[in-house]
Amino acid sequence: MSVITTIPCPVRKIGQSADHHFFGYYNKSIWDREGRRMLALRVPRMAWDLAAEDVAEVGYFDLSDGETFRTVDTTTAWNWQMGTQLQWLEGLPGRKLIFNRRSDDATGTYPGLQARILDIDDGTAIDLPDPVYVVAPDSSYAICVDYMRFTATHPTIGYVLAGPAPELDLAPTDDGIRRMELPGGESRLLLSLADLKAFQPVASMEGAIHWVTHLEINPAGDRVLFLHRWTRRIEDETCWLHRLLVVNSDGTGLKLLECSDHPIPHLDNAHDPNALDTFDYEKSEYQISHPTWRDDRHIMVWGPHAGEIHYHLYDIETGEAEAVGAPVLTENGHMTYSPDQAWMISDTYPDKHTNIRKLFLYHLATGQRIDVADLQTDPTLGKENRCDLHPRWHPDGGSVCIDSVHEGERQLYVVDLGEALTR
């Protein structure tokens, strides 16, 4: 039987700098292979409305040297939710990381944006033609998307424009999901947004703008999951529609796993999206969100299936889905599996009355949920500059790293899960 227990676990801030630090998204390794260095961005204030010229320092905490933050570069291509897509390239020789940046010399698909591979030992850099979203586990290729399209469709994860917004086609044939080889930078289109619109279409796609998000590569590196979203009213997230799909890493074998297409009664009526609380959309009964690979064949996601919304586990071979932890996993969160796959870590969005986010473990074999931390957020933070916890596992499975503002500053914290895991 599924139960909820509470076992408070130690939450410790990393570093002692007066500046603010964060990483961004969940489901990426923040520690290097030695467990000695922890990636982060450094900024001068906890939050502000970003401008295109705002600089974040790219670097890492040296955990073996007093948790000193070491700056290795800077970037102006970042946001509060996903950072700059900073990640280790553990499959390449040496000690390398990758991140996105703006450059007038960018030669790729998206003007002014590129990725940079930086060797932190010798300082050498390789500039790539396109910005990255996620890198394959063996560092052999990256999946790339258009961050300027995000700026129009989903500003929370876009990069602020330096000039006027470009005119965007609704579902172009030359933009969508790209694959870029590493470290060489050869890039090609795997799936266009026109391809996605034409694949098992529904009527609500007509006249809508389309985009892709939440892309993740499986452990074997041969499949990519993603969300296809579309809407006829960008500014109102309750009008967004969602599909969960998977495709082979060469662009073949596209498969639909879930579609949350549904009537939107207020689409043609006067409706004020600002009347919604910041996190109401994240708690929508139609939201498909935060998919993650359990293994090469199974995907966990928050979303609706068979008329009910839960954490659902999909078998990509059969297309079947099963609800997981329905009695205790009752709302959207950022979930990932422990290295031994015995546990999931996840979080909640803030309670609108207490402003508390919960960080919790879920034991897959027994269905037990263990709440390990209650962390307060600042209710004045808006949608774009909020601070989600985004828990990320340590490679040894004994702790997680989160971003949090519960002490009045934006910082990285490590939560030691030892007591909860052993009890």
Could you give the topology of this structure?
Blueprint: E1 3-6, E2 11-13, E3 20-22, E4 37-43, E5 56-62, E6 68-75, E7 87-88, E8 96-102, E9 113-119, E10 125-128, E11 134-135, E12 141-144, H1 147-153, E13 176-181, E14 187-192, H2 193-198, E15 209-217, E16 223-231, E17 241-248, E18 255-259, E19 289-293, E20 298-305, E21 308-315, E22 321-324, E23 336-337, E24 343-347, E25 356-363, E26 368-376, E27 392-393, E28 399-404, E29 411-416, H3 418-422
Parallel strand pairs: 1-26
Antiparallel strand pairs: 2-29, 3-4, 4-5, 5-6, 7-8, 8-9, 9-10, 11-12, 12-13, 13-14, 15-16, 16-17, 17-18, 19-20, 20-21, 21-22, 23-24, 24-25, 25-26, 27-28, 28-29
Description:
- The protein is mainly beta.
- The chain has a single domain (3-422), classed as YVTN repeat-like/Quinoprotein amine dehydrogenase (Methylamine Dehydrogenase, Chain H).
- 4% of the residues lie in helices and 39% in strands.
- It contains 3 helices and 29 strands.
- It has helices at 147-153, 193-198, 418-422, and strands at 3-6, 11-13, 20-22, 37-43, 56-62, 68-75, 87-88, 96-102, 113-119, 125-128, 134-135, 141-144, 176-181, 187-192, 209-217, 223-231, 241-248, 255-259, 289-293, 298-305, 308-315, 321-324, 336-337, 343-347, 356-363, 368-376, 392-393, 399-404, 411-416.
- The strands form 7 sheets. The protein has a 5-stranded mixed sheet with strand order 1-26-25-24-23, with no helix packed on it. Strands 2-29-28-27 form a 4-stranded antiparallel sheet, with no helix packed on it.
- The model has no long low-confidence stretch (mean pLDDT 94).
- InterPro entries: WD40/YVTN_repeat-like_dom_sf.
- This is Oligogalacturonate lyase domain-containing protein.
- It comes from Seohaeicola zhoushanensis.
